[in-house]
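Allow me, if you will, to draw on your knowledge of protein folds for a short while. I have a record of one protein: its chain in single-letter code and its fold written as discrete structure tokens. The full record is reproduced below for your convenience:
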Amino acid sequence: MATLNIDRYHAAMGDASYKDATRLRDKSLSEAQATFYVTQRKLRFAPCLGHERLVHSLIESQIDRPRVRFLEQDRGGLKLFADAIEDMHFVGAVRAVRPATIVFAQEPFADITGPFGLTQAQEIKFEHAFDLPMTTASLAMQFRMAAEGRWLSDFSLRRNGDIERAVEVATYAFIGGFNDTSNMEAAHRLDIPAVGTEAHYWQQSYLEFMYEPEIEPRTGKPKHFEQVAFERWLDANPNGTTLLLDTIDVHMGAVHAAMAATSTDARRRAFKGFRVDSGDLAKLGKWCLEFFEANGLRGLMPILTGDLNVEKLQRIVEEFPEAAGFGVGTKLSSEVTKIAGVIFKECLIENLPTLKASNSPDKTTLPGYLQIFRGADKNGNYVRDVIGLDEEEVEIPDAVRVERLLVPFWEHGRYDAIPSIKKQKDFVEEQRARFTDINNYPCALSDRLRKLRDGLTEKMREDNSGWQDILKLPEDLAPEIAGRK
């Protein structure tokens, strides 16, 4: 069942567009063909993900009677819009880049064309479809680049608010570059490998042995309760496991892990790695690895966790290159500093290019029926992106091949098949290898699009209304307004 996944301004604009008072010259504004493009403003780069979410929301477009009645009873009067959407099955056309295509800030990765009244009301669907997936996958890519070939595990389940969001975060982190997840529901649904170590409260649960200790046969002295806890865990996981060292103190944890692992051959075989979750992770990880090796425990995998962000992980790799892998949780989903910020902006109305000129250059939008042109050199490496008009033939210096990224995706309720998450993951990796410096990859506007944007902006700001003969300005504003002309 569809929900009212719209802002009130969509309903208000939709309703107004059906009224005779708002007609264009020869037709209702509601029926005028409009194109809106979709982009993200805040991430340097991101795999374009969320196509399946968009399809679901477009399919589930029909509004039930209670919600239609709610619109009809709106205090501002939205009956015309309510009538229009009651039996709505959206039949507009959507173009999009291929799922998992890496795109850059301000590039139009999708657009939608259809009658203005209903098409403008699709905005939130596009923003909800792409924002979380692209934000998560972009961050996962950055973690992957920082970790290089080391293992990356998604430990974000506890921070994601609800299970459906958690599954989505696990999905898009996997596509973006993570190897596995602690989320069992995601592992079940999506065939993503599941991983998990013990928690601190495993050791805490053996506290009784602090008061009634077992005796260590090799020394004849009482065992520390943490050693007992580690022995029990190794016995319960004979095929291989990781021990968590910082319940009390990392150095003590390492000593007790070594005592437990060297107590029997079976426990030694079960001890495959150790995890440090607090403190100076690089320094402590290095100390533990050297300590274990000095005591004959070689080949262990150091796993580091604990509020890792990309910069912190990168520093650890530089200081402790022996780190085998990382678990990332809080900073993957709940404490994200930068989101995609997906936007939906009109660029054509009745085949006339239009834009939002704005008072802020970074909020000025692009006019026309747009296209992304991506150039590749003779070795297949990407050299430059150019945002231009779809009707153009764009040449890119040093490129022997120029690809158009925006292609038909949805039309008349039919849409292209969406690749599996494994294929999308492989596609991200394939592309990433073709960007020689993704953080400084050049993106530009075509000369023709730039001229259209600048000329249209100037034209829109021209004022021929003769307002000077009718209105007066405060003296301090008069020079500013005159300067704009």
Observations:
- The chain has a mean pLDDT of 92.
- The longest strand covers residues 33-40.
- The chain has two domains: 8-135+338-461, 146-333.
